[in-house]
Every structure is written in C-alpha cells, then in structure tokens.
Model the fold of this input.
Amino acid sequence: MGSLKGVELLIAQSNPREGERFRQVLIRQGVMRLKDGQVSINGGREDDFFRMFAEKYVLNWRGDIKPEGTEYTIEKMGRFLGVSTEAFDQVTQAISEDADFFASNGTG
Done:
C-alpha cells in the first residue's frame, strides 16, 4: 500500500481534550518531547509514534488495498503512516476538523 488512491481510512472521532491527553501519553512514554512550547518526536522513536498514532486514530481501511486482501493491522497502518506523508496529512486533517467541530460547539 503506497497511495491512498481508491482507499478510505476510517478515522476515530477526536476532540481537543482527547488529543491533549494522547500528546501527554506520548511525552510521558518518551516518544515525544516538549521543548519551548513545541512538541516533536524523539529520534529513534518514529516507529513507536506512528504505531501509537494509528492505534489511537485509525480504525480500519477499505477499498483498493495493495496487495489485494491485505488485512488492516495497527502495525501495518503505523508503517504506512510513517512512509506516506499524504496519508498522515489526511488523517491529521480529519482529526483537526473533528477537534475544531467539538471545540466550536463547546463539547471538546
């Protein structure tokens, strides 16, 4: 699986509080660090980050998965997100839209 063409990702709903809790988990587990108000992935922990991100936010995939019949796993999705900027950007965009919706409605 190298492209999202013909593929749908089922994304978990998110709100700002959940996103912040998840970020704190990543920091506590040493996957990310907070420095000068900026969060970044710790070197050597990229695979952990993408696996945990997939576990938190991506529930499944469907469509034109290559090779055909490849079953969804968190590990496969994490690896895919780590090598596909397009996929990672689309997932983060969906998460951001959910968070914005909940925040603007006072439910985040």
